[in-house]
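Subject: sequence -> structure tokens, single chain

Hey, anyone have a minute? Need the predicted structure for the following. Not urgent.
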Amino acid sequence: MAKFLYVYHGSGKMPTEEAERKAAMDAWTDWYGKLGSAVVDGGNPVGMSKMVLPGGKVENNGGSNPTAGYTIVEATDIDDAVGKAKDCPILMDPGFSVEIAPIIEMM
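Reply:
Had a minute. Here:
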């Protein structure tokens, strides 16, 4: 099985109400449960990033498509990884997307 990086992009807001946070966490827990042993690293959300561009220019706030978090999964190929990502709870918010990239083992 190959490993794939899911990079979550978007600028949506984290739920502020306790019930909304619980519902969001339950959705992630359910999705990870469906993925089962395919989840190599459940990942984490990330804070606001900065982009360093050629010439040393720095963009605050993650640029035009900020990273929101990541997960690493195992799948037979990229199409399998894409299929697994289609039920990701982050996609319930139209401001988010999931980028999927194969992890190339160098060593």
